[in-house]
Amino acid sequence: METGSKIDKLVIGARDLKGHLGRYLIQGLVVSVFLHSALIALVGLLPKRDQPIAKRRTTDSTIVDLRKWIDDPIPVPPRPTPPQKPDDSKFVPIEEEPEVIDSLVPEDLEMPDLASNVPLDGSIDTGAFDGISGSFGLNTGELKNAGTVDPWTIFVPREIDPQPLRDFNPQPAYPKLASKAGVEGIVYVWVHVSAQGDVIGWHVIDVRPAGLGFEDEVARVIPQWKFTPAIQQNTPVAVWVSMPFKFKVSN
Fold this sequence. Notes:
Elements: H1 2-45, H2 66-71, E1 113-116, H3 176-181, E2 185-193, E3 199-208, H4 214-221, E4 230-232, E5 235-237, E6 239-249
Parallel strand pairs: 1-6
Antiparallel strand pairs: 2-3, 2-6, 4-5
C-alpha cells in the first residue's frame, strides 16, 4: 500500500513539473541574458591596458649578384719600371791637360821690399817688415835641420795667424855679389812658429835667382824672429807660415 502511494506521488509531481516547465525555462533564459549583459557591460567599463607592441623583424630583400664579385678580378697596380742604365757609348771622355804650377807660393803676394838705398857696391837699408804673407799654416813636427822635413804634409787650422813682432824681426842683408851685379831677387821660406811665438824651424822652398846668396842672408836672420802665437779656440798652437822676402836695388 505504501509503494503504491509513492508511485502515485511521483506521477503527480512529474505532471506538476511538466506543467511549469515552460515558465521556468523562460525565467532562466531571462536571468541568463541579464547576467551575461551585465558581465559584458562590466568588462567594457574597465580601463584598457596598453598592450606592448611586438617588435617586427624587418628583412632586406635586396638581391646581390655574387657572380659579379667572383667573376671580376681584383685590379693589380702596375709595377714601377726599373731605372734605365745610361748608355755609356753616348758619353765621350774629355781629356783635360793638367795645370802646371810654376811655384809653390804665388808671385803676386804683397810683401815689403828689401831695397838698397846706397850705390850697388855698398850696404843696404832694409825697411821694417809689416807682416807675413799667406793665410795657411802646416805642421810637420820639430825640424832638426832646415829642409829635412816637408812642411806641407799636415794642415793645422787656426783662427788667428801669427804676426811678427816689429822689434824682433831683423832684416837680411843684401848679398854683396847680387848688389854689385845689380840683381834683384826673392826668397820663399816656410817658417815653423811655436806656440810661444819662437822660430823652431824653417825651410827655403824657392829662390829666384839662385846661387847669389839671397837664401843665405835670410837663413842668418830668420831664427832670431819673434811672432805672436797662432790661436785656435783660445789656445796657442804651433803652425807653419809662408813668407816671401823680396830684394830690390834702389839707385
